[in-house]
Every structure is written in structure tokens, then in C-alpha cells.
Amino acid sequence: MESIKMLSKDAFTYLNKIPTDRWSRHAFSTKSKSAMILNNCCESFNNVIREARSQPILSMMEWVRRYVMKRACIKREGMENYVGKVMPAAMKLLHLSKEGAKNYFETKSTPQLFEVNHGENQYVVNLQARTCGCYRWDLTCIPCCHDFRCIMRNRADPEDYVHKAYTKESFLLAYAPVFYPMPGMKQWEKTKSPHPLPPPFRKMAGRPSKRKRIRAEGEDDEHVNALVVKRRKPTRCGNCGDFGHNKKTCKNDAAPPPPPKKMGRPKKQGPFTNPTRTSKKNLTDSGASASATKRKSKAAPAKGKSKAAPAKGRTRDAQGTQEPASQVDD
């Protein structure tokens, strides 16, 4: 309780108001042969009859009778081919105890008394009284890992130390009562008594509830707190830009229009962006400008050079006659 008080004072106060034998295993009675804290039997039953709950009382009882009759028959037929002394649920717990017993060390005092050690923890096991210091064997009547270690030391059968409530014989006794089938209403024996009338039908307002069961006091609050509630955005006015009202009920002056937004897709600037990489369009433009510059440099003469002078000596005119170089120059 001190640890619970350090974690939450509200939980400590809440648990203090409830008797300890209702929520803590160390105070449970050993008559129930179970270590369950929550009683899920009622939850399972409510889930099964969910289909019949909306029917009238007689129709609902008929549905429950057929379901119980069918279930008992299925359980009896299922045990016909089962081979074993202990039921599968208890065998599963025995296998878990077997795996956990590998980490324990026992010290034998008498054939029925043992001391089991595991690190700093130490337990006393009494095979004759079928008790263990961890209180698990006392509560469930199925050997825990400490008891399993001692049973294997005596080379005994662990199934012999399981309570008879978990055996196949007890299971068959539980489902032994037979639910006999019933004839229809038309085949019932007629009597002189007046026929029962159905209760007056009254249509209630609103949609009928489909909840599995009626929740306890304060359980609805816990259910609501566990849900994820979507937060609603505050209302913003489209005229003045303030919060708390809309454009139809606005009494303020209109706000100035916002500056125009830049069109186009923004440039990516992130840790994975390569600043030296250019787009396809930039590469095309740069290539076109480079080729134009190359063509221009070929067409234009080089700076500091004049046109080539005609060769000295005799030249030929259009008729093919040779003339002296001096005449050509003139």
C-alpha cells in the first residue's frame, strides 16, 4: 500500500475504502480454487445473450434454454475423445510451472518439507499439506514452479497434486445434467385457466440502447476519459480575422486584404538537397547559350588582325590574262 500511495494518492484512498479480500490475492479465500481478480463470467454471459436481449421475456428465456442445451451437449461430446486425467487449462499451467522450476534450487528437510531458493527469495513448501510460501498453490490448487521442483525431486507425478476440480471426471459431472427438449406451444396441454396476456406495449422516445449491460456508478466517466476526444478549432471571422464569431454576425470593420501570395512551387531547401545540381531547364538554357557563343566567335574576326593582303606577283583577271602586280594594286 505504501508503494501505491507513492504512485497515486487517489488510488490509495480508493482502495482503502474497499475490503482487501476483494482486490488483493493474498487475502483471497482458498475455497474458490481460482486466482482471478475480475469475474469475467457475467461479461461473457452478457455478450452471449446480446442477440436475445431485445426480445420479449419469454422469447429471451427460450433462446437461453436452447443455448444452454446445445452448449452442454457440445461439452459432453468433446470430452469423449479427450485422453488425460487433468483438463487442458490446468495442464497449460503445469507446463509453465515446469519451465519456471529450472531456475530454482531446493533443499530437502523431510520427504514432504522443502526449502526452495531463487536469488534473495526463499519459500517453504509442504507437499503433504499442499501449501507454498508464495500462496499460489494454496489459492489455485495447481502446483507452482516451487512445488513442481520439489515434486520432481521426489520423482512423483505432478498431476497427482492437482485438485480434483480440474480433472476430467469433475468436468463431466458439471455437464452431466440433461436439458430436455420441449414441444411447441400448440402441443401444450390445454387448461381452463385464462391465457396470459402480454404486457402493454409502449414505444419509448429515442433510439433503443444497444449497450451490453448497465454500467456501474463512475464507470461511464472512466470510459469517457479513455476515449480520444478531437479538439475543435476556434471559429475565426472571415471579415475582421478575429476569433469567436463568424462573418454573418461580425460587427467590426473589414480587415485590410492580405498581401498577395507568391505563385509557384517553392524551392526545396533541405538536408538532402544538392545545391550544385541544376534543373533540366537550366541545363538546356546554358547549353543553348554556349553553342550561340561558339558560333559567334567563329563568325567574328580576331581582334588586332587585318584582312589578308593579295599575294605579290602576277595575278590573273576574269579573262585569264596575267597582269603585273603593280597594275592590280592600282
Automatic annotation (TrEMBL):
Comp. bias intervals (Polar residues): 318-330
Residue ranges of every copy of the CCHC-type domain listed in the record: 236-252
Region span, Disordered: 190-330
Residues of the signal peptide: none
Low complexity composition-biased segments: 299-312
Keyword Metal-binding: yes
Name of protein: CCHC-type domain-containing protein
Biased composition (Basic residues): 204-214
Keywords: Metal-binding, Zinc, Zinc-finger
Gene transcribed to yield this protein: LOC130464302
